[in-house]
Amino acid sequence: MDDDELVTTELNDHAIVAGFGRVGSTIAETLNEAGVKYLAIEFGETVAQGAEKSGVEIIRGNAVDLDVLTAANVAG
Which of 12, 16, 54, 59 has the fewest Cβ atoms within 10 Å of its own Cβ atom? Predict the structure, then answer.
């Protein structure tokens, strides 16, 4: 992924789900039901596209990449 493609989220006080596969999407569903703001970090293009179609904010990339974590606003 090109770092120029990363857009920093505007979310604050949010959860970050690393991976939006079977487990991550289940966790996200629980967060959503609890009214917790969240975004997901996802490397797989197909999974990321599907999540975005469902209205999930996605940061594309690897959750161990510092630039990806910065874009996910870990500090916020």
Answer: 12
